Amino acid sequence: MATKVIKDDVIRVRVTKEHKEKLKKIAKEKNTTISEILNVAIKNVIKNYKKMCKRSVATEEKIKEIKLNLAKRKLKNEKIFFL
What we know:
InterPro entries: Arc_rbn_hlx_hlx (IPR013321), Ribbon_hlx_hlx (IPR010985). By secondary structure, the protein is mainly α. The protein is built from two helices and no strands. The chain has one domain. It is 75% helix and 0% strand. The longest helix has 49 residues, at 34-82. The chain starts with 16 loop residues before the first helix and ends with a helix.
């Protein structure tokens, strides 16, 4: 059996009455709580943000590599041109 994590911090969120009712309905249909639905959503946002940051770093590294290769190619072409 899974152990439950103690969640003792509170975040108050203002939503429209319509959103609150929709969340209540979803929670009831899924036999869970609004809090649990929001916790899952928050975990997904955090996970996606971390992935996005990793991709951003990887992209920057790739750009640096491409720029270096272009500079090397340009230098090589200049040497060939002047020979």
